[in-house]
Design goal:
The chain is an alpha/beta fold and 429 residues long. Helices cover 18% and strands 22% of the residues. The chain contains 8 helices and 18 strands. It has a 6-stranded mixed sheet with strand order 10-11-9-12-13-14, with helices on both faces. Strands 3-1-8-5-6 form a 5-stranded mixed sheet, with no helix packed on it. Strands 15-16-17-18 form a 4-stranded mixed sheet. The longest helix is centred in the middle third of the chain and has 15 residues. 38% of the residues are buried.
């Protein structure tokens, strides 16, 4: 069964609690603290599996959780780290926060593996809290909780070219002729109920991936029929081929059909109309009276607008070669970087929204100090050595008002900021 969307709950692992214990050895009745640290919770990871082309597996299970970290032990023994959970998805899957619909990750292009939820940091054992005045601390740090989040998975096919058109105009037939795809073909509406992908090979030119987008109907952008389910797959394509019935076998007006489909595309996402378009006037093998051909009217209406019209027969193959080489020429002039959606939502923010922090200037050390549970938690959940982690770190400082507070205290470029064990120089963007 093809499925291109699913809603699931994902949970990262809780960090194990730190342990409270004291060294007990013969002739050492009052040994010092030796409680070990708790293990970090497991991460919730999404990974692309090239062998998948559907999200159907996520329709049968609702909740996915990584492993919890183990509690620390005696004799400075650290708890075992929680097991990561890796969820395999098809290339082109977008992970969105279900509440805001903002993008968390787009599993496309080079992004084939992403940690979406980091596990909670393990708590420190009581050995870390011994001081000159408190040599037998009976306190250990609890592990940080995992993060629970409802997400929506959305699959947008990755193709260079999208075939659009009303039902029964010959999209599946054309795809089967020009590529290695073998879609189901029959003479009735909505034969295609899921996108079919095929690779087009051309002599002396680069090939491309083409997608047969299921037949649209008027009102699709408003969700009529299977509207949204179909339209989402057009968003990644770079060129669109409108296929129309030039023989008007079913009495449809091909010019009206093109305008109707463009209206649906614009209603769904106005950016879609900025993509190059080509018109494939299909079924010319069924035109027996040239005076009734719609091709002259199509050329007059659209070629003046820069949209080429190619008379073709998906059945006999007539005119298809010219169409494909024109499409390849259009693609060669476009940026070949895959369309990847930028991250808008950072789940780490959910872990410390209620926590406090302080921003102060330390005159003795001549640096600005940012501390508090919120900062400690943020550093525990964030790998700032990675590019994505550092981008989140910058976003956190800005959105939590920390940069604003630093500026209120008079910070200047080049001044030092300390956050627990981390020090960095301040530079204004």
């Amino acid at each position: 069964m093809f499925a291109d969307n699913a809603k699931i709950i994902i949970i990262s692992g809780k960090g194990g609690d730190g342990h409270v214990s004291f060294r007990r050895e013969k002739y050492v009745p009052n040994g010092g603290p030796d409680g070990g640290d708790g293990g970090h919770g497991g991460n919730l990871i999404f990974e692309v599996d090239e062998g998948l082309n559907t999200l159907a597996d996520f329709r049968h299970r609702r909740k996915y959780a990584a492993g919890n970290g183990e509690e620390g032990g005696k004799r400075n023994c650290s708890g075992k780290r929680g097991e990561d959970l890796i969820l395999k998805v098809p290339a082109g899957t977008i992970i969105r926060d279900a509440a805001t619909d903002q993008v968390i990750a787009d599993m496309s292009g080079e992004n084939t593996r992403q940690v979406v939820l980091r596990g909670g940091k393990g708590g420190l054992g009581n050995q870390h809290f011994a001081t000159a005045t408190m040599q037998a601390p009976k306190y250990a740090q609890p592990g940080q909780p995992g993060i629970e989040l409802e997400v929506r998975l959305e699959l947008k096919v990755i193709a260079d070219v999208g075939l659009v058109g009303f039902p029964n105009v010959g999209k599946s037939t054309l795809l089967s002729r020009v590529s290695n795809a073998r879609p189901k073909i029959a003479n009735y509406h909505f034969t295609t109920l899921n996108p079919n992908l095929g690779v087009v090979d051309l002599d002396g030119a680069s090939g491309f991936v083409i997608a047969d987008i299921p037949g649209l109907i008027e009102g699709a952008a408003d969700g009529v029929g299977l509207g949204h389910d179909f339209l989402r797959h057009i968003e990644r394509t770079k060129v669109m081929i409108h296929i129309v019935d030039a023989a008007s076998v079913e009495g449809r007006d091909p010019i009206e059909d093109i305008y109707a489909i463009n209206k649906e595309l614009e209603s769904y996402n106005p950016e879609l109309l900025k993509k190059p378009q080509v018109i494939a006037a299909n079924k010319i093998d069924a035109i027996y009276d040239e005076s009734e051909s719609a091709i002259p009217a199509l050329k007059k209406e659209f070629e003046a607008k820069g949209i080429e019209v190619f008379p073709i027969s998906a059945v006999s193959g007539q005119g298809i070669k010219e169409l494909l080489y024109h499409v390849q020429d259009l693609l060669s002039k476009l940026d070949d970087t895959p369309i990847v959606y930028e991250q808008e939502f950072y789940p780490e923010m959910l872990a410390f929204t209620e926590e406090a922090y302080t921003v102060e200037y330390d005159g003795k050390e001549n640096m600005y100090v940012v501390e508090g549970p919120k900062i400690e938690k943020m550093l525990g959940y964030t790998n700032i050595d990675s590019e994505k982690g550092f981008l989140f770190f910058q976003k956190f400082l800005r959105e939590q008002g920390i940069l604003e507070k630093l500026e209120e205290l008079g910070i200047s470029e080049g001044d030092t900021v300390r956050m627990y064990g981390l020090q960095f120089d301040y530079y204004k963007n």
